[in-house]
Design goal:
Converts 2,5-diamino-6-(ribosylamino)-4(3h)-pyrimidinone 5'-phosphate into 5-amino-6-(ribosylamino)-2,4(1h,3h)-pyrimidinedione 5'-phosphate. The protein has 10 helices and 16 strands. The protein is an alpha/beta fold. β3, α3 and β4 form a beta-alpha-beta unit. The chain is elongated.
Length: 344
């Protein structure tokens, strides 16, 4: 299960939970490993089974160890229970049960089909891995990733309002790849008026990437007809300053993963409401001393009231030594998530 948890950490956070799987024989010899790589891709269990077949290994009679209860429903992919039964796996070891209504039930289905099922192996670690995703699902809202780009001393614009470009081309290209991974990108009307962003996902040459997120603007101010988010079909307008209401509207549109692109007012509102599930902070080696701060007041009166976050040591293509921190040209990206709340 420890190996399965490490494999789960190789996946990206977002619309789906992080899940890892290990296929082993009865003696515990590892035959194959797998993990979920994001929405629309194979789940961890079919990924491990496919890896075994590519290696010429027959999974019949094997044990499958998975960090989260296998799903028993059809979404973008088929039920994992069907893949497990079709492969002839005879024992399944589960870290934590699936807490969602549509995903639960896989263990009972496997038991009914005669598979030996063992549950609750390293359950606390398995639950903690996806504690924010679980909360987002319980609140029936999208998973929220917030992104900001600032100077080393935390400013997103100089005193005169100039902000392009604080970070370099490598960081900006990296942020565009993040856009291509989410269902929607959300900005406030202040950012829309000040920066006139397109919010499209583009490569280093400026060409559009294959997946384009839904573009959304939140706030009460009106955008001019000449704005980039008004032209070309326009962005979804969310005439509200309430983060909960905005997420509800996006969820109604089928959005499961939303990226907050700014600005400081929007980010502060979502942070104050504890609705940011992960934060991507790009920092450039620049010092301004004054200007527009990346985050506004959060109502913290003392150090004991500070919001506690931790570096997120997960993510695809990142070495164990560098997880959560990446060097992008002259800039540094830190990815972090809120610390889990103490159990009641």
């Amino acid at each position: 299960m420890g190996l399965a948890l490490a494999e789960a950490a190789r996946g990206p956070r977002g619309a789906n939970p992080l899940v890892g799987a290990v296929l082993a024989d009865r003696d515990g010899t590892v035959l194959a490993v797998g993990h979920h790589r994001g929405a629309g891709t194979a789940h961890a269990e079919p990924d491990a089974l496919a890896a075994a077949r590519r290696a010429g290994t027959d999974p019949r009679g094997a044990t499958l160890c998975v960090t989260l209860e296998p799903c028993d429903h059809t979404g973008r992919t088929g039920p994992c229970t069907e893949a497990i039964l079709a492969a002839g796996v005879t024992r399944v070891i589960i870290g934590a049960p699936d807490p969602t209504g549509d995903g639960a039930g896989g263990a009972a289905r496997l038991c009914a089909a005669g598979v030996e099922v063992i549950t609750g192996v390293l359950p606390e670690q398995a639950r903690e891995l996806n504690h924010r995703w679980t909360r987002a699902r319980a609140e029936d809202r999208p998973f929220v990733t917030a992104k900001t780009a600032s100077t080393a001393d935390g400013f997103v614009a100089a005193a005169d309002g100039t902000s392009r470009w604080i970070t370099g081309p490598e960081a900006r290209a990296h942020a565009h790849r993040l856009r291509a991974r989410v269902d929607a990108v959300l900005v406030g009307t202040g950012t829309a008026l000040a920066d006139d962003p397109r919010l499209t996902a583009r490569d280093e040459t400026g060409a559009s990437l294959a997946h384009q997120p839904l573009r959304a603007v939140m706030g009460r101010r009106t955008l001019p007809d000449t704005a980039a988010l008004t032209r070309d079909g326009g962005a979804l307008r969310l005439d509200t300053r309430d983060p909960v209401g905005a997420l509800r509207r996006l969820r109604e549109r089928g959005v499961e993963h939303v990226l907050l692109e700014g600005g400081p007012t929007l980010l502060t509102a979502f942070l104050a409401a504890d609705l940011v599930d992960e934060l991507w902070w790009y920092r450039a080696p620049l010092l301004l001393g004054e200007g527009a701060p990346a985050i506004g007041p959060l109502g913290v009166g003392g150090l004991g009231e500070a919001r506690r976050w931790r570096t997120d040591r997960t993510g695809p293509g990142i070495s164990d030594a560098a997880r959560g921190v990446e060097i992008l040209g002259p800039d540094v990206l830190t990815r972090c998530e809120p610390q889990p709340r103490p159990a009641p």
